[in-house]
Design brief:
By secondary structure, the chain is mostly helical. 54% of the residues lie in helices and 11% in strands.
């Protein structure tokens, strides 16, 4: 078993270009800071605001598309 921050670290190590949206059901006081330090694209608590979640997913997809177009 691994928590979200451990998963984030593994994803960043294996796929550094992958934008990761981290959703936490039990946020610790410093989770947001640690997630940002480890490269999370977005950190949200559950339940997420639907509009913010949609905007974040679209922004992550657009950023990934822009990076692959520039190669």
């Amino acid at each position: 078993d691994m928590d979200g921050l451990e998963l984030l670290a593994a994803l960043r190590r294996d796929q550094p270009e992958l934008p990761v949206l981290l959703l936490s059901g039990t946020p610790a006081p410093d989770s947001s800071r640690r997630a940002a330090e480890r490269g999370a694209f977005v950190y949200m608590t559950k339940p997420p605001d639907p509009e913010r979640l949609e905007q974040s997913v679209l922004a992550a997809a657009e950023g990934r598309r822009s990076r692959s177009d520039s190669r």
